[in-house]
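Case 314 in the screening queue. Each case pairs one protein sequence with one candidate compound; here the compound is zinc ion. For every case the pipeline is the same: read the inputs, emit a complex structure as tokens, and attach any notable structural observations.

Predict complex for case 314.
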Amino acid sequence: MGETPKKTLGLETSEPAVTPPPTDVEKAIEKKPVNPETTRKREIPQGLWTKCPGCSEMIFDRELEENLNVCGHCNHHFPVSAWTRINSLTEPGSFLEIDESMTSVDTLEFTGTAAYAEKLEKHRDKTGLKDAVITGSGNMGEHKVALGVMDFGFLGGSMGSVVGEKITRVIEMATENNLPAIIISSSGGARMYEGMFSLMQLAKTSAAIAFHGRKGLPYISVLTHPTTAGVMASYASLGDIIISEPKAMIGFAGPRVIKDTTQSELPEGFQTAEFLMERGLIDSIVNRTGMKKQLTEYLDYLCLNIKNKVKAEA
Ligand SMILES: [Zn+2]
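Case 314 output:
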């Protein structure tokens, strides 16, 4: 008689003991994948270190910034914003921006995977820029220069109506005021969202540079990674002097397109600044950290007969 209650007790305890745990275990498994993500972030704080793709060294972000986004170990040139370039090239407080409020219009009402209007808004928020180029005048050493600097961060530095118009106007400003012009390019080419309007910019900018040249004024084109397609096919390749940052990709059509069209193997280093310098398209390869000094030296030679000196004006 005394054995039976023991048996029932045994069954009662074993049954509920087996059923509940699986639900608890499932919950625990569900939670686990979330945790490693947060702990990983804790281990390597974001925005402090950057791994260099050139030499795999971990570089302290502040150190990278101070060196104009150039790796101190292997000289890899990271992308840099247009404003950082302007500040690194012009004398403090001397840069005066022109056409700063010019903005692109979605003339074609382009819609693809995303609408052009939406893309513009997104990139304006992301970069704080109105479009992919900043233009104006500033002092470089004792020279006053007209300067245009592209920003690859804004829609791949693509050239639409605004980029073309701003480049044209800054060149025209240089022509009117007897100033040398410098354009720093960084672009994937014409802006497809503006179709034919983008392509028209090639002729317009080239014509402005021709008028500038006819007046005997120098124009220096600086190529940075990457400078391709419509921009390379217009103002970027029209410099009296063409210089480039190291290892920049420079070309017109992409390597795959050329390979398929010509049905031939492309030589090693094809479409790099070094390859193009060997073949005479580029005059000099200059490190970003030495760019201001090099440009100032060129201006010293090129502007001997031009009254663009800051001292002379004052
Ligand atoms: Zn490196």
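Case 314 observations:
- The chain has 13 helices and ten strands.
- The beta strands are 49-51, 58-60, 96-98, 133-140, 143-150, 181-187, 219-228, 241-244, 250-251, 284-285.
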